[in-house]
Amino acid sequence: MGCIPTKLAKHTPGYEDPTVLASETSFSVCEVEALYELFKKLSHSIFKDGLIRKEEFQLALFKNSKRKNLFADRIFDLFDIKRNGVIEFGEFVRSLNVFHPDTPTEEKIAFAFKLYDLRHTGYIEREELKEMVFALLDESGLHLSDDVVEVIVEKTFSQADSKGDGRIDPDEWKEFVSQNPALLKNMTLPYLKDMTMVFPSFAVNSELDE
Amino acid sequence: QPAAMNAFELISMSKGLNLANLFDS
């Protein structure tokens, strides 16, 4: 499916040239344009300023703009590369590129490590893992006793913390993920491959913007 | 058998990590 460059269309603040973004990512120019349609939709869902804010991100993920979630917060913070509280278009495309089926596994492993390194210490600590397990249980409305959570975390650490220093470093993480590839399942979005075929309406809309 | 689960496997099920939802919005 072809697409027409949208040079004449009005763009939101933080807009970047699709040819530049395509050159830096696994997306084609057409796919970047299709992503721009998705971005516009998300960034106009509440504040209509062309920037994705936390509430808009939560609305898209949970159909509820007030739904706080530790993991959505972490994803939002990693997408917000400039750390200014909003996701701009270029940040959106570059970050989603990590989830592209053609992106090397090493990049996905590194992204997942950053995601779980809650306090940016360069390690995944036992307390962080426990906090994440409790957050997941809370989100799912499940209750497990502290003892059970402790067993789950302990068992995971016994497998992942091969150096036995009580924390998981990037090398240990890489090794652990290679033994448990299912852990990276949510780091790949099949939708991102040939976006314009999966979302033909986005491509059509980008042409109508002309 | 939740105790048999890998903690990372458990947390990877979070809806907050399921970005496919961005496309359904």
What does this structure look like?
The complex is a heterodimer of chains A (210) and B (25). With 210 residues, chain A is mainly alpha-helical. Helices cover 55% and strands 4% of the residues of chain A. Chain A contains eleven helices and four strands. Chain A has helices at residues 18-24, 29-43, 54-62, 70-79, 89-97, 105-116, 126-140, 146-160, 170-179, 195-198, 200-208, and strands spanning 52-53, 86-87, 124-125, 167-168. In chain A, the strands form two sheets. A two-stranded antiparallel ribbon of chain A has the order 1-2. By secondary structure, chain B is mainly alpha-helical. Helix content of chain B is 36%, strand content 0%. Chain B contains two helices and no strands. The longest helix of chain B is centred in the middle third of the chain and has 5 residues, at 7-11. The N and C termini of chain B lie far apart (34 Å). In chain B, 40% of the residues are buried. The mean pLDDT of chain B is 85. At the A-B interface, helix 2, helix 3, helix 4, helix 7 and helix 8 of A face helix 1 and helix 2 of B.
Task: Describe this protein with a few key phrases.
heterodimer; A: 210 residues; mainly alpha; two-stranded antiparallel ribbon; 11 helices; B: 25 residues; 2 helices
Gist?
The complex is a heterodimer of chains A (210) and B (25). With 210 residues, chain A is mainly alpha-helical.
Helix/strand layout:
The complex is a heterodimer of chains A (210) and B (25).
Chain A: H1 18-24, H2 29-43, E1 52-53, H3 54-62, H4 70-79, E2 86-87, H5 89-97, H6 105-116, E3 124-125, H7 126-140, H8 146-160, E4 167-168, H9 170-179, H10 195-198, H11 200-208
Antiparallel strand pairs in A: 1-2, 3-4
Helix pairs in contact in A: 1-2, 2-11, 4-6, 6-9, 7-8
Chain B: H1 7-11, H2 21-24
